[in-house]
Amino acid sequence: ELSVVCDQVGSPTHTLVLCRAIASLLGSPLYGTYHVTGSGSCSWYEFAQKILELGGLEGIAVHPMPAEKWPSPTRRPAYSVLRHYAFELQGRPDLPHWSEGLAEYLELRAQAKDSAPANS
């Protein structure tokens, strides 16, 4: 069973999605601060549910937990979703939805695991 924070919302971002977005900015005549994250948003609880779903991990109970009950010395904002305003100004498309990035990550991880040499 898992207990996962349900009242903190953000935009999970696969590192390859982030790298592709940064690479697309190289050579751009515009400069400044870019907020680059996967599109859409979810709570950590929703993120955990999607990981289990896409990972084919059935039978694991996920329980929502308020952040105040999570044993952490770090205070995190309840809402940390960033607007991709610099991308919008340039007419650039939004990055893939966070769930698409997660699916790509899990697929690449499975491929790497399948192609890894067996331990002798």
Average pLDDT? 93
Q: Quaternary status of these chains?
A: single chain
The largest sheet, given as strand count, sense and whether it forms a barrel, is: 2 strands, parallel
Our measurement of the CA-to-CA distance between the termini, rounded to an integer number of angstroms, reads 33 Å
Q: Please list the strands of the largest sheet in the order they lie side by side.
A: 1-4
Secondary-structure element order, as H and E?
EEHEHEHH
How would you sum up this structure, described in words?
The chain has 120 residues and is an alpha+beta fold. Helix content is 38%, strand content 10%. The chain is built from four helices and four strands. The chain has helices at 15-25, 44-54, 85-89, 98-115; strands at residues 2-5, 9-10, 42-43, 62-65. The strands form two sheets. It has a two-stranded parallel ribbon. A two-stranded antiparallel ribbon has the order 2-3.
Name the descriptors.
single chain; 120 residues; alpha+beta; two-stranded antiparallel sheet; 4 helices; 4 strands; flat
Short description:
The chain is an alpha+beta fold and 120 residues long. The chain contains four helices and four strands.
Write the topology of this structure.
Layout lengths: L1 E4 L3 E2 L4 H11 L16 E2 H11 L7 E4 L19 H5 L8 H18 L5
Parallel strand pairs: 1-4
Antiparallel strand pairs: 2-3
Helix pairs in contact: 2-4
